[in-house]
Amino acid sequence: MRKYFVDNLRIICILLLFPFHTCMIYNNWGELFYITVRPYNLPSYFVGIVYPWWMNLLFTIAGMSSYYALQKRTAKEYIRERVEKLLIPLLAGLIIVVPVQSYIADIYHNGYTGGYFEHYGIFFSKITDLSGGDGGFTPAHLWFLLYLFIISMLMLPIMDKYIKSGKKIDGSRIRLLQLLPMFLLILICAPILEIGGKSVGESLACFAIGFFLFSDERVQDTLEKNRILLAILFLLALAGRHIMQVNGYMSGLLWDIEQRMVTWFGIMALLAAGKRYLDFSNAATKYLSGAAFPLYYFHQSILVVLGYFVLKNVKIAWLQFLLIIIGSFILTVICYEIFRRIRPAAILFGIKYKKGKR
To answer: Which of 11, 70, 155, 326 has the fewest CB atoms nearer than 10 Å to its CB?
Structure first.
């Protein structure tokens, strides 16, 4: 049976992209986004609440989805799917989708006056911290595709052997007390290949936990039964993070431990709540499930371009905020609807092609 709550949690994570990256424009800790304006506390709090668990939940869900996929696909079919859905869109995105963000950043922050295609030379030659906020090269939001492809390929021999062996982890013997300290695994893996603040090791740990543990329905049931406790632990971890942040304790081992506790309790609490309340399907969720990847793929370039013009022409902060969120969502959906009807574009961008009516 299809796990609709997994699809719906993925949809929620994707929809969070729009307020999250809009809030990044107003962050108050000084991180250079592609476009930035006067900082505000409320958007910054939102980013602080979402950031620790958000992308790691997507990697966990990707691990769970890989388990389900390998039940009905061979290793070769899985590789082909990863190439078509991740690698090809990644390479296409680095040429077609991402450079406009760096171009806007160079105009906004550095006063760049050259043309868009002229800026390609800068984009592919200016290598700094990979953030793109300075107008240099960046994978931008497509770092997720890059990491997921690498992790999928690294994990495939282990995953394939595990599936074929028939010897699975006995989920009925997994208790909550055994799950709670597993944030330490994420903590230990976090320093492995950390690039631009994004760790391959941490992402791989979440993916592996999703594959081996959370794909088991009995473990999911354990989470669901303890959903209230997990929600409380998640809220307490968030409160602890906020207290440390307000008091300037944003580095060192204690901060790293707190970060991973928020990550881990957040993942478990949201999976538990999803299992309980989100295991359904309707017309809206079916549409958004198919649109999730394209929404992720196109959203940030559209948001940055739209945001650039909104910030230039609208002076009221709350109106800027609403226009950027709502406008970028609508334009991204339109972009998806156009490209999924053009076969070459659909193939290039990893979108399921929709045949038009004859």
So the answer is: 326
Q: What are phi and psi of 194, to 5 degrees?
A: -85, 115
- Is residue 221 predicted with pLDDT exceeding 90? yes
Residues 233 and 269 sit within 8 Å (Cβ to Cβ)? yes
CA distance 65 to 53: 18
**pLDDT tens-digit readout, 45-64:** 999 899 999 999 999 999 99
* pLDDT tens profile 278-295: 999 999 999 999 999 999
Alpha-carbon dihedral of residues 232, 237, 239, 245, nearest 10 degrees? -170
> What is the CA angle 16-22-27, rounded to 5?
110
86's tokens: 């991740």
CB atoms within 10 A of CB 10: 22
C-alpha torsion sign, points 194, 197, 198, 201: positive
Q: How far apart are CA 184 and CA 186, in angstroms?
A: 5
Distance of CA 20 to the CA centre of its chain: 11
DSSP conformation class of 34: S
Q: Which two tokens stand for residue 90?
A: 């990644």
